[in-house]
Amino acid sequence: MPILPFSLPVMTSVKWTIMKDEAELSTLLLIGAGLQSLLVLLLPAYVAILPACLLLLYRAASTYLSTLGLIPNPRLEGVVKGKLWAAYPGPDGGSTKSSPRNNVVLFVLGARSNHPSGRSFPEFKEMGVHFNTMWKEAEENRELYGYLGKTLPLIGAEQASGNVLVTLSYWKSIEHLHAFARGPAHRAGWDWMNKRVNNSPYLGIMHETYLAPYGQWENVYANFRPFGFSQTKHLVHDSKEESGGSQKLVDVKIETRGSRLGGMYTRMGRTEVSKG
């Protein structure tokens, strides 16, 4: 059964980004030209061009001042400076020296709107509601489903309007992912989706699944915002006496120095580099 762990973003800034990328550049330019023409008709010329000139001046000044370091650079917000590597945390959430030798399952999910109105198509939005329900179930049952985390949707750029959204999600094993596929939220969503896909060409969906055994996967990030595996969260044993042996949710373990950052094979935990 195909798996649909996907959701539309809920943050306002992300929603605006998706709306912006939904329209082709020519459409956005025409909207701006139309608004400017309306101002010219309603106001004196020197007043009508003032908003555009002020906005352009503001953007140029902001870019210049942030380049000089005189004001904060918004593009650096959330960026982790330097080089780092993300790994499974240890059994108690501590050092990666005691990290479990776990596999990683990467699930790539793509949703596509083939409707002339793009992602504004009502059934595409309804699909997002189903996907949100699935994500919520995965997050509330991390141990049962081996769910580790996901990225926000990535916008496909093969067409002028970004009508394709792709999400990367991470799981502990194929068995865990299959258990999620058999869960109530996914089964309900898949039943809905199956009817729509069979009856309409306007909704599209795809997925790819990759199993990376221990010793065959790694990552490295430099001056990057948390992304992909470095966004994941993990259930570990709570060593505090008052916890009664319960579990706690911790962030992925980040290494910022040491030999583990030396090279790809080292980050994979492999002691020898295969030749040939």
Notes on the structure:
This protein is of the alpha+beta class and 276 residues long. Helices cover 37% and strands 21% of the residues. The longest helix has 19 residues.
Relevant terms:
276 residues; 5-stranded antiparallel beta sheet; 10 strands
Care to count the β-strands?
A: 10
**Based on CA inertia axes, which overall geometry fits?**
flat
Low-confidence stretches: 1-12
Largest sheet: 5 strands, antiparallel
Protein topology:
Layout: H1 12-22, H2 25-42, H3 45-48, H4 50-68, E1 80-87, E2 104-113, H5 122-140, H6 142-145, E3 147-150, E4 154-155, E5 164-171, H7 174-181, H8 184-199, E6 203-212, E7 221-224, E8 233-237, E9 247-251, E10 253-255, H9 264-267
Antiparallel strand pairs: 1-7, 1-10, 2-5, 2-6, 3-5, 4-5, 8-9
Brief write-up:
This protein has 276 residues and is of the alpha+beta class. The N terminus is likely disordered.
